[in-house]
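quick one, two chains, predict together pls
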Amino acid sequence: MNREQHDQLILHTALTAGRIMLENGSEIERVEDTMIRIATNAGVEGSQVFVTITGILMALNGELGAQIEPIKKRIFDLEKVSVVNDLSRQFAVKKITLQQFSNRLDHLDSETKYFPFWLQLFAAALVSGPLEVVFRHNLPDFWITCVVGMLGWWVYYVLNKFIQIRFLSEFAASATIGILALVGVHYGLGNSVDDIIIGGVMPLVPGVPLTNSVRDVLAGNLVSGPARAIEALVSAAAIGFGIAMVLQFL
Amino acid sequence: MTITQFLIESIGTYTATVAFGILVNIPRKALNTGGLIGLLGYLIYRFTVLGGGGYVVGNLLGAMAIGVASLQFARMKRMPMILFNIPALVPLVPGGQAYQMIKNFALGQNTVAFSYLIQVIMISGSIAFGFLLSELVNRVQQRFWQQRG
């Protein structure tokens, strides 16, 4: 492999690693750090990266120009962030070669290893019910909150598959939660609409953008941090509108 | 707070944190740790509030504990820090106040809604500031480690 091909491989590996991490919910500082580490461990000192939430630019100190990698989708799959992190560590201690690293990344990109759907539903139920009890101390409504939260997540998940606009899915899911809570209380399955809704929307909380926006702003990424804060705000607003719409019928 | 209530709250917080971890697909071996950190953060918040410290200070200390503990475990397990602090933050989210705010805005009771809005802003701000303080602790610790090593 000549010099130019080697440089190209480094760029490809670093950019793919960066893109996978950003798409799946990593913070900016970690992406920058990982990409520079990959280049350094592959034998190139003084590479430059420019990472924002919608795209990455990277240049090596060789003859090749800088290359761009756009970030088009944004989902939450923190396992992939962890896998890229592991691969980068393995590459650093020379357990895998650059070519193997690149192949593993391409492979990782095409496969999704989520928890099975039934387990996600179960988890959504277990976020809703316990948090309702923790926040509101309303034990009798535990079961109905579990069911409502689970059905809300089901709506969110299915809509996300078909329309792929997260804010709309969140809106529809929270409206469903509101309606189900009203129906549940009407038929005597629960006591308090408020408590059921509070528990039921907890699985939809935009935890990843919330946490990352704080971390990005603190790290000095003044473009990506506020952008993520807006993402979290729009999510929260979508959930709020869904609930508010239902509450008009009280 | 009775012992039963304490146990129910602790178990509930732990379960909810682990379950939220499943929803954002964090690796299996990080789930338990995330749950424990979430429990730690929540208990610190709860006892601060019970001790009369107020919810702003409580959230601040809780978020700070989460930030510091996450980094320790991230270092120990050699995994990214966000795997631990994202699910751990969920029990601190001001869900109840945010809901009351939405409800009162929807019903046209703006005065009540604004007072809840202020609470939501205060809590979110104190959580963010808690993270900032934890970052400060982490940076100081890193500097200390580098100088020794």
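Chain A has two domains: 3-110, 117-247.
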